[in-house]
Design brief:
This protein is about 30% helix and about 25% strand. The chain starts with 13 loop residues before the first helix and ends with a helix. By secondary structure, the protein is an alpha+beta fold. It has 6 helices and 10 strands.
Length: about 190
Amino acid sequence: MREWPHEKEQCMKTFAFERWCDRLQLPTATRDFLLRLRSSPPVRRVQGRLLNVCGTYASRKMGVSIQFESHTVELWAIYTMEYDREVLEFFDQPYQLELHYQGPSGRPTKALHTPDFLVLRKDGASFEEWKPEEKLLELMVTHPGRYQRDERGKWRCPPGEAAAESLGLSYRVRPSEELHAGYIRNLIFLKE
């Protein structure tokens, strides 16, 4: 597990972070929330399960090791964020959101959920949940109140969006289809 010094090195120093917040006109509560998350360790450790391979990635951009629970989805997402110039910072297992939605039985459901990443981009900040496309198709059937596809075919999690919005942030469901193996192989080659 990585060490989180009290004043860890950030991609954005204090002045750059404040300027970024000013440019995006973030409310004080959102700024304070992001400041707290940027200096906090992950809220949980990743867990290896039967069909996933977990580990850590030593991020040059972030100056710390970033956890992943999938070596083909989350790790590939990390590679993408590491080299994306629009991504200023990214944090793994950043916060536990409380989701409220209609469960499969039709009754109101409350679930605690830790998104894979908090991503600060030049144009905003969002929680991101990366999943294999086939898993999303399954979840759309088993948990339709939580995972949905809009009319344009874009994946959404309305309860995640509502929880993030209450904090002044956005929430994005990112399918594995957004990751391209050839591009990722090139990024891995660049790293070595």
